[in-house]
Amino acid sequence: MSRPLAWLCVCALICVSSSLLTACGGPKQAKVDVPPPPAIAANETTQESAETTDTREPAPASRNEELHEAPASHGKALFVETGMASWYGAPYNHRRSSDGAVYNMHALTAAHRTLPLGSTVRVTNLKTGHSVVVQITDRGPFVSGRILDLSQAAAKKVDVWGAGVAMVRLEVLRAPVPLNSGGRWAVQIGAFEKEHAANKLRDHLSQRYQTARVLCFGSPVGDWWVRVRVQDDDRKRAEEVARNTHTSEGDIFIVRLD
């Protein structure tokens, strides 16, 4: 065998030996069977999706620590009122309600002009007998002859959604504060079709009641309102303003702000 050929054979043997030593002497990786992740239940998927996509602000902390409740023994309500109820939906959906939370027309809520925010109310359709329990989260309705504005979901429960309006009985089951004392009060006037008409009344009331704060604002449906916040938001002062104010356009309402 020639010298160059012998040298090549020796080099090949050295490389093969080195590879075998490395394979035998190096640490071996244990083979681990990793089980597949557990399947996600349908309800967990729904919950995760809701938490991911719901960008609405959370409702304020509950004020139910000192609730005034109707006695459970005989079921007598704290307050009963009978009148026409209507409902409100899409133009106001996802807008901020009077309680600071974002209005959800698919929740069981309602708007009332004077009941404390956070009150729990049972609403019964006097024609069909269907009832629903709702929470007062907003202010309204600002239409003469109506006492309650239901969310769309609540309106469907008591057969108001299709009809638009219905005669109902309202029973206050519990409230965060006493119904007949305290509160922050204002006067709301409208609706005005034109902004200049609302501004004209605002200027007049600002000059007449110099200690009051008079605001003009538009609604989601395009009309205009004037709100008078009297000194200290006192109810008697607000009632005095309401009695002494006259306008050829719009109605005048006493409204509780809290």
Question: What would a concise description of this structure say?
Answer:
With 258 residues, the protein is an alpha+beta fold. The chain is 25% helix and 27% strand.
Description:
The protein has 258 residues and is of the alpha+beta class. The protein has five helices and eleven strands; from the N terminus they run H-H-E-E-E-E-E-E-H-E-E-H-E-E-H-E. The strands form two sheets. The chain has a six-stranded mixed β-barrel with strand order 2-6-3-5-4-7. A four-stranded antiparallel sheet has the order 9-10-8-11. The radius of gyration is 34 Å and the shape is globular. 27% of the residues are buried.
Features:
25% helix; six-stranded mixed β-barrel; alpha+beta; 27% strand; 5 helices; four-stranded antiparallel β-sheet; 11 strands
Amino-to-carboxy terminus distance: 107 Å
Low-confidence stretches: 1-66
Question: Helix and strand succession?
Answer: HHEEEEEEHEEHEEHE
Instruction: Calculate Rg over CA atoms.
Output: 34 Å
The residue-averaged pLDDT reads 79
Instruction: Please tally the β strands and state the result.
Output: 11
Helical run tally: 5
Strand portion, in percent? 25-35%
Based on secondary structure, the structural category is alpha+beta
Shape: globular
Strand order of the largest sheet: 2-6-3-5-4-7
Helical content band: 25-40%
Characterize the biggest β-sheet: 6 strands, mixed, barrel
